[in-house]
Design brief:
The structure holds two protein chains of two kinds. By secondary structure, chain A is mostly helical. Chain A is about 70% helix and about 0% strand. In chain A, helix 3 packs across helix 15 and helix 6 crosses helix 13. The chains are: A mainly alpha, B mainly alpha.
Chain lengths: ~350, ~300
């Protein structure tokens, strides 16, 4: 019954023979509703770009990087240059000889942040200090990344007894109060590396600064534990996935699987953890410098600039406030940017 | 459970032992000795002093002697503070640091937990945003910066508070504030995120569906579970207070254990370095072990390994 009722309606539809011819290429294309596939990086970057706080912090990070690495080479003063009769100037003040030079028609670059008690331009010292602190932060984080990721990946991938032993070792290292060992290690290593830098074959160390290298080693030796734990937990999950089985079936060795499949797949987590390690390292470096155990004179670091200024803080508060603010702002923007990166590349880590 | 506790305590003791061993060999690698800095004494006197304290013996022998003495409760004499035993110095300085840290813990918990609750309760609104900004800043400012800034503002500029020592109640305000800023900010963030996490659970929805006010659900049901991560943070908090106390004690000239530790390192006072390191490390490790065990007792959801 129903069948006979439907047929006349079908006949009323405005269909011609054209409607039954094969579709043209353009018609086929219009039917594809799938978007172009977005890869991991593009997706993460898109989310990152939407995050206002992260973008503002990125802008500040760029400013700090320019301030620390580029500006000093254009600055007319150097960080260890002592200008006679220009000691303890406040901002935009000139020393006795500088005033004479100005009267003689010369142009003298102003000390926009004043000078310290040895007559060194404070602005350029701030820049160099920021450079030292940033370098320590970045290189330490990279060392931590390399050691931690390798250790964690090997432990997680091998599993069994090896994993047990390796993780027990990190457990013990984790319970040790790190600051005690950092202080001890830094005073132990520093003189040794400084004397090592004087032996032939190691002169390149002096260029980098022997005490900076000591700092890198100390941090790398202690802070990789967190990174190793995170990598291991990721690898434990990832190694069960099908593509690892597939790779193994195709004859890939453990090293290749770790490098090509496991580490590349937890790269989001690794980047986020490394970025968040930078402010932590800057924090500890400035803390050590404050106790007088960090980077040694005449090289400034933000912590040591603050320490030097504590004694005269009633008369020259700006010498204290500027490095203090700079440390806090640097740590803050790196933390905020790291949080933004985490939300963009590793949403699972959010809580 | 008993097995877990025993295992955890054994690992804690092993950690203390490793710290002690590492410290012993590390400090002996440091160039210079406790008596080198004194120019006034002659070479012979210096050697006599070293012989008196057994510093002329081989390193390994000194290590075993120290460890056996330590296990019998003898931490030796201080090399620089003549005539005083290490345990004597530690017991006289420790209460000062402990009181400071204890007050800071209480302040951090009493301020951090409510702030975190308020923040989570008003999620996305003005108070929440305000607290988040405060918390983020609090985490970014190192304790030495905050203590120096406090010292400058209230000590020498406004001259409201005493700048050194711990003589009356007012002199506690600045050091405690400087110490408590970081843990407070951290607890606030922790409390907020864990409370938000718990508030999304089914049993909270059930409680709300049964007609409980959102305030009551927060207090009666959510808070208890949300407090767990805060408890877990107590161990690391002690460690962070300890590191904070090194500089805070230095800046506010407080005669505490942290200052003693830093000065013993610069003085190469070997026995003092060992004593303070072991005591401080043991404290932090013990707190961590205790928190771990407590955590398992409180939260039955955590599987025992």
């Amino acid at each position: 019954m129903e069948h006979t009722q439907n047929t006349p309606e079908l006949e009323k539809l405005p269909l011609g023979p054209d409607d039954f011819s094969p579709a043209t290429a353009s018609e086929k294309e219009s039917l594809v509703i799938m978007r172009e596939s977005v890869n991991f990086w593009a997706d993460g970057l898109r989310r990152l770009r939407k995050n206002k706080i992260a973008m503002v912090s990125l802008f500040f990070i760029l400013l700090i990087v320019i301030f620390a690495y580029i500006l000093p080479s254009f600055w007319p003063y150097t960080y260890d240059q002592q200008i006679k009769y220009s000691e303890n100037l406040s901002a935009f003040e000139y020393g006795k000889t500088e005033l004479q030079r100005i009267e003689a028609g010369e142009s003298v670059f102003p000390h926009i942040c004043g000078t310290d008690k040895l007559g060194r331009d404070f602005a350029v010292r701030l820049m160099m200090a920021t450079r030292v602190s940033l370098t320590v932060g970045i290189i330490c984080s990279i060392c931590v990344l390399v050691i931690g990721a390798t250790y964690g990946a090997v432990a997680g991938f091998t599993g069994g007894l090896v994993d047990d032993i390796m993780m027990r070792f990190t457990d013990i290292l984790y319970t040790i109060p790190d600051i005690l060992l950092i202080i001890l290690l830094s005073i132990t290593l520093k003189p040794r590396i400084i004397s090592l830098a004087e032996t032939p074959g190691f002169e390149w160390m002096q260029k980098v600064g022997a005490n900076l290298i000591a700092m890198f080693i100390v941090f790398a030796l202690l802070y990789w534990v967190g990174m190793a734990r995170i990598t291991r937990s990721q690898v434990l999950v990832l190694k069960e996935s099908e593509y690892v089985t597939a790779a193994r079936a195709l004859g890939a060795g453990s090293g290749r699987i770790i490098r090509k499949h496991l580490l590349t797949n937890c790269i989001g987590t690794l980047i986020v953890t490394t970025t968040l390690q930078i402010p932590a390292a800057i924090f500890t470096e400035s803390y050590l410098s404050f106790l007088g155990l960090g980077v040694s004179a005449p090289m400034p670091s933000l912590g040591s600039l603050a320490t030097d200024a504590v004694k005269g803080m009633n008369t020259y508060p700006h010498l204290l406030l500027l490095p203090a603010i700079l440390i806090s702002v640097t740590i803050l923007v790196f933390n905020l940017f790291g949080d933004g990166l985490r939300d963009a590349f590793d949403p699972k880590l959010k809580n | 459970m008993g097995k877990y506790i025993v295992k955890r305590i054994a690992m804690g003791i092993l950690s203390v032992f490793i710290v002690a061993t590492l410290t012993f060999f590390l400090m002996n690698l440091v160039p210079g000795g406790p008596f080198v800095a004194e120019k006034s004494i002659s070479k012979a006197a210096q050697e006599a002093l070293e012989a008196k304290f057994g510093l002329d013996k081989p390193l390994l022998q000194r290590y075993t002697t120290y460890m056996t003495d330590f296990l019998q409760g003898d931490m030796g004499f201080s090399l620089r503070q003549r005539g005083r035993t290490v345990s004597d110095i530690i017991f006289s300085k420790f209460p000062v640091s402990a009181r400071l840290a204890g007050i800071a813990v209480v302040v951090a918990l009493c301020v951090g937990i409510p702030l975190g609750c308020v923040s989570a309760y008003n999620r996305g609104k003005l108070p929440d945003n305000f607290i988040i900004v405060l918390g983020t800043c609090g985490i970014a400012i190192p304790s030495f910066i905050s203590s120096v800034l406090l010292l400058y503002t209230f000590g020498s500029w406004l001259q409201l508070l005493p700048t050194m020592g711990l003589n009356d109640a007012a002199s506690y305000i600045m050091p405690v504030t400087a110490l408590a800023i970081y843990p407070t900010a951290y607890i606030t963030r922790l409390m907020r995120s864990s409370l938000l996490d718990v508030m999304g659970q089914d049993y909270i929805r059930t409680a709300k569906a049964m007609g409980l006010s959102s305030f009551m659900t927060l207090f009666k049901h959510a808070l208890r579970n949300a407090l767990l991560p805060v408890i877990a943070y107590v161990g690391p908090m002690l460690a962070s207070l300890m590191t904070g106390s090194f500089v805070v004690e230095k800046i506010f000239t407080i005669p505490g254990l942290g200052r003693e530790f830093v000065s013993s390192i610069t003085n190469r006072d070997y026995t003092m370095i060992m004593g303070t390191t072991i005591i401080l490390a043991a404290l932090v490790i013990a707190a961590n072990v205790l928190v771990d065990i407590l955590y398992k007792v409180i939260d039955p959801r955590i599987k025992l390994k």
